[in-house]
Amino acid sequence: MTDELLVVRCRLGEREAFAELVRAWHDPVWNYVRRMLGPSRADDVAQEVWVAVVRGLPRLKEPGRFAPWLFTIARRAVADRLREEYARPEIPMGEERASADPADALVDRADLLAGLSELPVREREVLVLFYLQDLSLEDCAQVCAVPVGTVKSRLSRARRMLRAQLTEKGYRA
Hints:
Layout: H1 3-11, H2 15-37, H3 39-56, H4 66-87, H5 104-118, H6 121-132, H7 137-144, H8 148-168
Helix pairs in contact: 1-2, 2-3, 2-4, 3-4, 4-7, 6-8, 7-8
């Protein structure tokens, strides 16, 4: 069933339709939030996103544009959480490093995720939305509230930065 039809059914008060929307979109939203904030905060923020969806669903003007609308809500929730954290005084912590795993594929993935988490928020956000959530450039632009050209330049910058980080760690470009 399409998201558009599920949204319409939700507006009519069908709880099962909302449950289907959550089943279809919970993992992508949670993964986006996790990649932006880390796993320790993903559950709470993802839950905040779904509360905002319940409240905002009646005001969604174009039910066919549910995915970009949903990720816009997720983006705002992430931004709110980051704003809260930046307002708090920073507590120095020891440098944390993922433990080495004998499987090269896992090490490569860990290095890639570590490199991704070290990117500035704007660049990380477009990489996650475009490559990991498979949103189009136009949808990424809508979620980020910037022109498509800005998304393209952020993607380009993010790829360069990630490549430089991985090259620094010994990976070939």
